[in-house]
């Protein structure tokens, strides 16, 4: 019953979110040549997702409010002005959690800029509440796991990219530690 209501709400809200993201990407391309927008495609069939919902005992907000959408657009515009990368690199990152070009650190620095300016990272620590609110639901252990995976990286852009890549891959795979969820 509660799970059915949640799935119905997600099915209604997710298309609206995708439409909003499309318009953000389109408007940004008017302002910066060959740049893209970061957004995360939600997977609803994750084995961790239902456990996370039960743990929170509430629906996880997947819809971006107007103010968050405007802030997101401003962050992307700001990061694109410093770290311009092709749209297809961002689309690939959204699809498989990896950038097409890892020799040039521009894409990694774009992701670092995005994470910092949007509040996903504060004082070099992931802000789990912001990640779940703005991007996607995570297994309880994903933030700690991904932070520890990348802590040996000395370059801030490479470190942030490694964390983002880890988070994306764990979300796509539905990887979790059931005892932590």
Automatic annotation (TrEMBL):
Gene3D superfamilies reported in the protein's UniProt record: Pheromone/general odorant binding protein domain
Lineage of the species this protein comes from: Eukaryota, Metazoa, Ecdysozoa, Arthropoda, Hexapoda
Database matches in Pfam families: PBP_GOBP (PF01395)
Annotated signal sequence range: 1-26
Keywords: Signal
InterPro entries: PBP/GOBP, PBP_GOBP_sf
Transmembrane feature ranges: none
Name of the protein described by the UniProt record: Pheromone-binding protein-related protein 4
Gene designation per UniProt: PBP4
One function term, GO molecular function aspect: odorant binding
């Amino acid at each position: 019953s509660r799970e059915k209501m949640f799935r119905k709400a997600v099915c209604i809200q997710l298309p609206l979110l995708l439409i909003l993201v499309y318009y953000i990407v389109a408007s940004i391309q008017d302002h910066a040549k060959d740049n893209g927008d970061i957004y995360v495609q939600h997977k609803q069939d994750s084995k961790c997702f239902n456990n996370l919902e039960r743990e929170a005992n509430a629906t996880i907000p997947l819809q971006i409010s107007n103010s968050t959408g405007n802030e997101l657009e401003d962050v992307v515009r700001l990061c694109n002005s410093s770290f311009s990368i092709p749209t297809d690199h961002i689309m690939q990152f959204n699809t498989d959690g990896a950038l097409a070009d890892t020799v040039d650190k521009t894409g990694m620095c774009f992701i670092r800029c995005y994470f910092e300016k949007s509040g996903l990272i504060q004082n070099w620590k992931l802000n789990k509440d912001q990640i779940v609110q703005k991007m996607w639901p995570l297994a309880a252990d994903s933030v700690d796991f991904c932070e520890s995976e990348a802590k040996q990286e000395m370059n801030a852009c490479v470190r942030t990219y490694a964390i983002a890549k880890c988070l994306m891959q764990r979300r796509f795979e539905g990887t979790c530690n059931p005892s932590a969820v």
